[in-house]
Design goal:
The protein has 276 residues and is of the alpha/beta class. The protein starts with a strand and ends with a helix.
Length: 276
């Protein structure tokens, strides 16, 4: 297996976390093992890793009955073509995928070829924030806004003290900060840090505990300071590697450069479109 499996156990329930290798941005897909089925959370970036998630579920003898896409970023979305389950998402996330999903897929396909599909799969079913009992297990659906991205889904298992935060948290992996929402992201982190969940399953890297909040708060504060003085993407990357030399996921530092430091002709074009 190319990826790594970590199993979180609590009160008879298991969540199997598949972490992709560096090439796949160390992104996590989670399989929530209910009595008769799996709920999958996020679909991976590249198809070979998505297929490993599906094959792992098959090896455990239960069907994947739902795939939840937490947000539209390519590393959480593009592997959905490997799944056969209905796809669920927040209304805002579905709208974003419908608007830009195919463009994102085409851009990533151009870089990597057949390991990335040419088009993005569309969610067909909507998630409403709130609580639902599935196969006898309470599942809490939470809408996260203005953190790593504008809208994202998080899932809690309140009776098992397990919180699938996805990209609210990273674990020893460099963080994608291209949307620059530092202040609101820090606010959201502090708000959720005050809640009672202690088993935390992040969007990238290994599951952990409440210490993940402190490490994320530290990373974002330092990343914000580094971005304020960095001359370009290479400079920012060097500053963040120096600040966090043991972190994996340097590929994410490369990926975000074009968003944080767009070419001048692109930036001029954007400025011309701004209203006076």
């Amino acid at each position: 297996m190319l990826g790594k499996i970590t199993v979180t156990r609590s009160l008879g329930l298991k969540v199997h976390t598949y972490t992709a290798p560096e090439e796949g941005w160390l992104v996590n897909s989670h399989l929530i093992e209910l009595p008769t089925q799996f709920l999958a959370v996020d679909a991976q970036y590249m198809l070979p890793f998505a297929r490993e998630v599906v094959e792992y579920g098959v090896s455990l003898g239960k069907p994947i009955t739902r795939l939840y896409i937490t947000h539209y970023h390519p590393d959480h979305l593009l592997g959905a073509a490997a799944f056969r389950a209905p796809i669920y998402a927040l209304a805002e996330v579905r709208a974003k995928i419908e608007a830009v999903g195919d463009r994102v897929a085409a851009e990533e396909h151009a870089k990597h070829g057949e390991v990335i599909p040419l088009k993005a799969e569309r969610p067909s079913l909507l998630v409403t924030p709130g609580e639902e009992t599935i196969d006898g297990i309470r599942v809490e659906f939470l809408q996260l806004q203005h953190a790593e991205t504008e809208d994202a889904l998080m899932l809690g298992l309140p009776d098992q003290d397990i919180f699938i935060t996805q990209d609210l948290l990273y674990s020893q992996v460099h963080v994608f900060v291209a949307e620059r929402a530092f202040d609101t992201w820090l606010e959201r982190l502090r708000a959720y840090q005050a809640q009672s969940y202690t088993r935390l399953l992040p969007g990238h890297g290994s599951p952990g505990g409440p210490e993940l909040y402190d490490s994320m708060l530290d990373y974002l504060a330092k990343a914000q300071d580094a971005l304020a003085v960095a001359h370009n993407g290479v400079d920012l990357k060097a500053r963040l590697i120096a600040a966090f030399p043991n972190y994996s996921g340097r590929v994410l530092l490369d990926h975000q450069q074009r968003f944080l430091f767009p070419p001048k002709n692109v930036e001029i074009g954007r400025q011309r479109k701004l209203p006076h």
